[in-house]
Amino acid sequence: LVRSRGLEMCIRDRFFASRLGAHDKHTLDSRYYEADLALRLDRRTEAEESYRHIYKACVREGRISSSGVRAAVALANLYEQDKKWDAALDVYRHLWPTLVHFDEKDGYDRALQEGLLPKTYSGYMAILESTSGQAGYEERYQVASQHQQLCRKLYGPTSHRTRDATMYLAALCASSDRHSSEAIDLYRQVLK
């Protein structure tokens, strides 16, 4: 029954995609249904494939449209569980700018942004921290700086989240000669 149901969903997905296009709401809904069901049945490969189709269909100009965010989050989780670090990093490199350039008129809501921010940031930074070299530092610096600005905007300058983000950024800056004066300024902000 499960195998015939899977075949039926696959045929339906291809029908929707061929007739309505990969970006159509019905195509995406069908793919989500298939991915969620596959995940519940512990068919991770099929779930990953369906989430990846949704994710790829929803990436535009380096960001993920609101209809693809859930697929991106699920895909990043699957990749991390399977230790597919490069694939997870690719997803984070699209998911992070989506959060940074969040806009309610694009269909995102603030609660979604606030809910995704901690997990996305920690997952992205954990992978970046495992990379070495100057390229890894530059990307970590950019993400940490954007995170600190987002925390300040979302939670206010006196929030513990903003303080923690500022302290992390200050420590990161202190590890680089180029950003050492910024580190001092950031530490001063926390002490005020």
Give a brief rundown of this model:
This protein is 78% helix and 2% strand. The protein has 192 residues and is mainly alpha-helical.
Feature tags:
single chain, 2 strands, 192 residues, 9 helices, elongated, mainly alpha
Summarize the topology.
Layout: H1 2-20, H2 25-40, H3 44-58, E1 59-60, E2 63-64, H4 69-81, H5 85-100, H6 110-130, H7 134-155, H8 160-174, H9 180-191
Helix pairs in contact: 1-2, 2-3, 3-4, 4-5, 5-6, 6-7, 7-8, 8-9
Explain this structure:
There is one protein chain. This protein is mostly helical and 192 residues long. It contains nine helices and two strands; from the N terminus they run H-H-H-E-E-H-H-H-H-H-H. Strand 1 and strand 2 form a beta hairpin. The mean pLDDT is 86.
Number of helices: 9
Question: How big a fraction of the residues is strand?
Answer: under 5%
Q: Which sequence of SSEs, written as H and E, runs from N to C? A: HHHEEHHHHHH
Distance between the termini: 64 Å
Tell the overall outline. elongated
**Low-pLDDT regions:** none
User: How many strands in all?
Assistant: 2
Structural class: mainly alpha
Q: Can you list the strand order of the major beta sheet?
A: 1-2
For the biggest sheet, the summary is:
2 strands, antiparallel
- What percent of residues adopt helix (DSSP H or I)? over 70%
The gyration radius over C-alpha positions equals: 19 Å
Q: Average pLDDT value?
A: 86
